[in-house]
Amino acid sequence: MNSFFVSEKIACAKGVFCNELIFNTASFDLSLFHRYKVRLPESVCRAVKKRQAEFLAGRYAAHQLLEYMGQATKDIPIGIHSSPVWPTNIIASISHTSHKAICVATHRKSYDFIGVDIEEFLSENIAKDINDVVAKKNELDLLIAEGHSFVKAMTILFSAKESIFKALYPYVKCYFDFSAVKLCDYSKMKNELKFVIQEHLTQDFTIDRQVFVKIKVDNYVKSLCLGKLPISL
User: Fold this and answer.
1) What CA–CA distance (Å, rounded) separates 134 from 156?
2) Contact 139, 148 (CB under 8 A)
3) For residue 45, with 0-12 CB atoms within 10 Å meaning exposed, 13-18 middle and 19 or more buried, which class applies?
4) What pLDDT is attached to residue 1?
5) Which element (helix H / strand E) includes 172?
6) In this predicted structure, what is the pLDDT of residue 2?
7) 111, 226 Cβ separation under 8 angstroms
8) Which stretches of 50-158 are assigned E, i.e. beta strand?
9) Are 170 and 113 in contact, with CB atoms under 8 Å apart?
10) pLDDT score recorded for residue 7
11) Which residues, at least 6 apart from 19, have a Cβ–Cβ distance to it below 8 Å?
């Protein structure tokens, strides 16, 4: 670790591997791409420093995790709609805040879809601004009834729906709105949210299909959407 990467933690549970990195944007410069053997795409080269630092942290977290899994690769290209292109036998997801990056990965034989999101808590103004876009009132009520403030509930809901989008996008292959999934149950004991799909996305992800998200709430909100497709008979 140098002054850019402050700490790293790799863990594995139930076949899901996770790498979390804390990084310091103030210590970033472009030479770090070469030092950490992460390819600098042209689109990122033209981006602002903050975006470059976040991209490096996310890709480095992913490279380290794949190496840990015995799946080392020289490059993780940018695919359609900026989605990472993973090794064929791996599914994975990356997320970051302004100073923390997270990558989760698993083998395709274990799960069919995976999506991760990490968020700092929204400000009250932002939470109010995105309320009508992200949430229906009864969704927030489920979270607030369990003792979460409006801001914390909105951050949890936003993060959970982001993780669902990342998990389902490789199958749906297009953007879909927050309204495409609806929170219908929340178990604070299990740290689990149950969503129901509200519109036809694909044959596998259609109306009334349930999708589950695990959350962890501490200084951040972390959300993990993980699952398998139905078995065709």
Assistant:
1) 11
2) no
3) exposed
4) 52
5) helix 150-172
6) 59
7) yes
8) 90-96, 100-107, 113-119
9) yes
10) 87
11) 8, 9, 10, 61, 62, 64, 65, 68, 102, 103, 104
Domains in the chain: boundaries: 5-109, 117-227
d(CA 26, CA 211): 38
CATH of 5-109, one of 3.90.470.20, 3.40.50.720, 3.20.20.240, 3.90.1150.10: 3.90.470.20
Shortest CA distance to 116 belongs to which of 135, 95, 90, 101?
Answer: 95
Could you tell me the CA-to-CA distances from 96 to 9, 162, 216 in Å, in that order? 15, 12, 15
Amino acid letter, residue 35: R
Tokens representing 141 are 């009520």
CATH topology agreement for domains 5-109 and 117-227: yes
Helices vs strands, H then E, count in the chain:
6, 9
Token pair, residue 86, equals 């993973």
Domain 117-227, CATH class in plain words? alpha beta
Give me the average pLDDT of each 10-residue run along the chain (233 residues): 83 95 95 95 94 97 96 91 91 97 96 97 97 93 96 98 96 93 96 97 94 96 94 52
| pLDDT value, residue 233 | 44
Write the DSSP string, 20-62: EEEE-GGG--THHHHHTT----HHHHTS-HHHHHHHHHHHHHH
